[in-house]
Amino acid sequence: MKLTNCKNSFRSAWMALLCGAMLCTACEKDDPKSTACDIASFTVNDKAWDIDDTNITRAYPEEEVAASLTPTITLSPGAMVNPSSGTAQNFFTEQGVTYTVTAEDGVTTKTYTVKATLRSVDSGNYTWTLTGAPGNYTLTISGSGAMGSYDNEDVPWYSYRDGIKTAIIQDGITVIGGNAFSRCSNLTAMTIPNSVTAISYGAFSGCTGLTGMIIPNSVKTIGVAAFSGCTGLTSVTIGNSVQTIGYDAFGACTGLTSVTIPNSVTMIDRWAFVDCTGLTSVTIGASVQTISGNAFAGCIGLTSVTIPNSVQTIDNWAFGDCAGLTSVTIGASVQTIGYSAFFNCSNLTTVVNLNPTPQNIADAVFYNANLNAATLKVPASAVDAYKAAPVWSEFGKIEAISENDG
Q1: pLDDT at residue 274 is higher than 50
Q2: Which CATH number fits domain 118-400: 3.80.10.10, 3.30.1780.10, 3.40.50.720, 3.40.50.150?
Q3: Fewest CB atoms within 10 Å of the CB: 110, 123, 325, 339?
Q4: What long-range pairs does 384-390 form, CB within 8 A, spacing at least 24?
Q5: Average pLDDT of the residues of the chain
Q6: How far apart, in whole angstroms, are the C-alpha atoms of residue 149 and residue 272?
Q7: Residue 370: how many CB atoms within 10 A of its CB?
Q8: Computed over its alpha carbons, how large is the radius of gyration of the chain?
Q9: Which of 292, 287, 234, 295 is nearest to 261 (CA)?
Q10: Are strands 327-330 and 304-307 parallel, antiparallel or unpaired?
Q11: What is the pLDDT of residues 132-189, one digit of tens each?
Q12: Is the pLDDT score of 304 beyond 90?
């Protein structure tokens, strides 16, 4: 009897132990693993980066930039990350570095993009930021007021200039500084806001990668050599508030095919479009009073030009060496035509002069133009006066202006 009771007690204890183990196993199976897969913190050298949803960023001053950075990453409990925390990376690229966090459950994931940007603050109350990879940098300038002007080597981003592809000037900047983007040869895209009122000397000189430029209506001054040597520039839109196009402003922009100078412009300065050999069409606004020396010299692609009635002075060599020029219309208010203004315009066949009084001009105005084979058209009342005037009388034909002329 006692033995039987002992066996029964042993059996009961064994069953209780077995049931407990089964219950424990069931508890483990019913307790789900975490699905959290967040990056709680991302630090480099004890400096925390900004986390915005799945984007992690930090702007670095130029003096702190390193080729690679080693981050310390804190994750949700039980989660894993690839690449792992403590792995050095180059975050200064356009695409950044992608991190994939896998939750404790082994199934749930989240992807983060981590980028570093380059920034520096100039004494001129503006900030510049460089993002992307070498050769494909985007330079963004923000702030207020005028940018500084520089000698080339003093430009804050000078050492990165060959790699800048896009430049964005944000609203608030009023003056683009002298030489600011000079020789950024890979610059292909440029944004200028309506807050800008002046483009200073040499601002974009030598930017051979620029193909198009829109100068907003807010701009009043295009400075000396502002776009000089931009050989890839094929089109430019000049805003309707520009008053002065400076010395050599578009000199040697050999790819430029046409230009319209708005009615707001009163003076085209010396050498403004010199050696724009691809220029085939130019429209001069109705407020221009002076076409300065060499303004269009060497524009061998020009075949015709109309100088509006607002112009009073065509200065020395203004259209010198425009060998492709076949016809010229000279406005009624032109009083002065400078020395060699149409020098070497060897294909000139027609000149329309709307002034009723022949201008007193030097022999060299049309030097190397075959005037004997050309026709001069003038107001009917002035035909005899032109036939008697020095130089004008050398044209092979002098005729009265018809309704189609001028």
Answers
A1: yes
A2: 3.80.10.10
A3: 123
A4: 385/357, 385/358, 386/353, 386/358, 389/358, 389/360, 390/360, 390/361, 390/363
A5: 89
A6: 21
A7: 13
A8: 37
A9: 287
A10: parallel
A11: 877 889 999 999 999 988 877 788 888 889 999 999 999 999 999 999 999 999 999 9
A12: yes
pTM reported for the whole predicted model: 0.75
**143 contacts 173 by C-beta, under 8 angstroms:** yes
Q: Is it the case that residue 12 has pLDDT exceeding 70?
A: no
Asked: is 39-116 a CATH 2.40.50.140 domain? The reply is: no
- Give the pLDDT of residue 403: 64
pLDDT in tens, 213-260: 999 999 999 999 999 999 999 999 999 999 999 999 999 999 999 999
pLDDT at 4: 45
With a cut of 60, say whether residue 19 has pLDDT above it: no
Tokens 């084979």 -> residue: 373
pLDDT band of 31, cuts 50, 70, 90: low
Cβ atoms of residues 287 and 312 within 8 Å: no
The arithmetic mean of pLDDT across residues 284-291, rounded, is 97
Query: In the numeric block, which tokens belong to residue 342?
Result: 């149409």
d(CA 353, CA 374): 13
Domain boundaries, the chain: 39-116, 118-400
